[in-house]
Amino acid sequence: MKKMDKALEQAEELVAKMTIEEAASQLNYISPAIERLGIPAYNWWNEALHGVARAGTATMFPQAIALASMFDDEQLGEMAETTGIEARAKYNIQSRYGDRDLYKGITMWSPNINIFRDPRWGRGHETYGEDPYLTSRLGTAFVKKMQGDGDYMLAAACAKHFAVHSGPENIRHSFDAKCSAKDMNETYLPAFQALVEDARVEGVMGCYNRINGEPGCASDTLMGKLKEWGFDGYFTSDAWAVRDFYQGHHVVEDKEHAAALALSKGCDTNCGDTYPCLMDAYAKGLVSEEDIRKAAVHLFRTRFRLGLFDENNGFENLGLDDIATPEHRAVSLKCAEKGMVLLKNNGILPLDKSKLKSVAVIGPNADSIDALRGNYYGTSAHFVTFLDGIREELGEDVKIYYSEGCHLHRNRVEHLAQPNDRLAEAMCMIEKADVTILCLGLDANIEGEEGDEGNAFAGGDKLSLELPESQRILLKKALETGKPVVLVLAAGSSLNPHAEKAAAILQAWYPGECGGTALANILFGKVSPSGKLPVTFYQSVDELPEFTNYDMAGRTYRYLSGNVLYPFGYGLTYSTVSLSGAKFTKDHDECTVNVEISNTGKYDTDEVVQAYVKDLESPYEVTNYRLCGFQRVSLKAGETKSVTMSLDKNTFTLINNEGERGPGSGKYRLWAGVSQPDELSCQLSGVPCLQIEINN
């Protein structure tokens, strides 16, 4: 059970003093003041995906997908706690000035723990990738640290979007995701279950689409799962999702019936314009006073748990000097350094600046703030673009040539110019420089949420894994020169740049306010790259199932056959490692794998040791294998460490076709390595995985 159980009693007592009209008024995300009871206005909608978002100045961390590539729940927890501190500080300041507007509350609608099942989904970079276990671990760390463990919550986290939700964006208001019981319980629900049961997440947000015919914000199936897991927080709709009941899904006839359906199924607050009609629905006998008051109690229980009615809640002294501090900025930098993934290196990296006379920094993402931000972002007090970071590192010692090279996705930079109007400038610089840092990729104007400004190609979703044509032309011309090109990709999802001739490829993601510093630190060897891909990088979408197909067959590393450009769990460092002595231990319900890892190279580096499992006989096992443990470790050059990974509690259980979890066959194979155990991963990383046979 949660701490602060007295909050329920306080909420019941307060709601009992309200008229039915007053209680109903509190169920919209814009909750008005009730002055006679001393209740201030409150807005439930705030965002904290990678730092406090949309509310002015705050530390901006790398986008969620970049945080996932750290494979480091402790570091992610530090980011979440830092975000919670800034959220509380901003709430204190804004409340003091009577500002209780949108994005000014302390109920943060993060993290997004949907499974990134298809690389076309524009919002995939908001998630922790394609794996249920990785998502569960990271999401749990986020919630625990953001909420804290004191008498009051630091900030209230929210698990979204419950639950079978990952595009397409442009039909999300009418789409019905068909999902088998096995896929539901094996892939789409485990992270939500972990956040409810293990992290005691305070909020859950429903999704826009239907799931097997039921609207996500009024689903008997999903609400039943929350009850089964012991959820005792508040449930909110996604923005205007209840309106979709009658305008998109046509499961009810009008606004009053939509409000009644959502409320009766357990949706406590409506982000949108539907619940203001609750009293009309009540007058028509569509909703009961009991349901209205029950939802109000849930909402005020959260407000009491946050200490919003206690002036001495322990957080009252947080304020302006706790926002965007140097210490918080250092956390953002560390996350960016840990999250960038080195996909290819022919030996050119790290660059030795003492041997360089000139460097060309080329591309539409070279000096782009959008390339740092992703979506759901705050305003950094100090952005460092890729160009800024390289310029700061090289100083006056090395000549820097800079050209935008091309527009991010249009065929010209200047509206009245001819196509490819920056190409000649860029080629001149590439041919003259000793090495080129080519900064390509996407930003949230291309991949993102339906309705976001700019990403109009497919409602925010991607049509393919190709770079925009303008960038393809620039990349092809640059590689044809034969001069060394280091390709830096700022993107939140799988791309295939067709850059076989590139000397190195670094996936920078959307790396936050210190992205340029992190990039320079890696390029010039101050830090070894150590991120691992939390998603599969595919060769093409042509071999994937239809985007609207929610079956897992043929998707993600667990069920995929072929079509892999770079595998899930893969990422190079500047050093080399060897593994030995893998040992499995079971002590009651606690299972661990221990392995010795040695840094056999000349660079200090972090590595991520990973454990995978496969049931050798059960028909219910995934096609390939499952991630069941991981541990990040720091190694000095020449150092050997013993690493112990605690395995997922579900390692030796499986989901059958009816969606029920049960024991496996008892015969398993475990692998321990710094990648998946597949041939391509081991070939690319150069490190074979160790294998353990288990009869459990």
Describe the structure.
By secondary structure, the chain is an alpha/beta fold. The chain folds into 3 domains: 6-42 and 70-314, Glycoside hydrolase, family 3, N-terminal domain (TIM Barrel, Alpha-Beta Barrel); 326-535, Rossmann fold (3-Layer(aba) Sandwich); 577-695, Sandwich (Immunoglobulin-like). The chain contains 20 helices and 25 strands.
User: What is the CATH H-level superfamily of the largest domain?
Assistant: Glycoside hydrolase, family 3, N-terminal domain
Strand content: 15-25%
- Helicity level, as a percent range? 25-40%
What topology, given as strand order, has the largest sheet? 9-14-13-12-10-11
Please, what is the average pLDDT?
97
List the main descriptive attributes of the protein structure presented here.
20 helices; Rossmann fold; globular
How do the helices and strands line up, and which of them pair or pack?
Elements: H1 6-16, H2 20-25, E1 30-31, E2 42-43, H3 64-68, H4 73-96, H5 132-147, E3 158-162, E4 176-177, H6 181-188, H7 190-197, E5 203-206, E6 210-211, E7 214-215, H8 220-229, E8 234-236, H9 244-247, H10 255-265, H11 278-283, H12 289-305, H13 326-339, E9 341-345, E10 358-362, H14 370-373, H15 386-394, E11 399-403, H16 423-432, E12 435-441, H17 469-480, E13 485-490, E14 504-507, H18 515-523, E15 537-538, H19 556-559, E16 564-566, E17 577-587, E18 590-599, E19 605-615, E20 626-635, E21 640-646, E22 653-655, E23 661-663, E24 667-673, H20 679-685, E25 690-695
Parallel strand pairs: 3-5, 4-6, 5-8, 10-11, 10-12, 12-13, 13-14
Antiparallel strand pairs: 1-2, 6-7, 9-14, 15-16, 17-18, 18-21, 19-20, 19-24, 22-23, 24-25
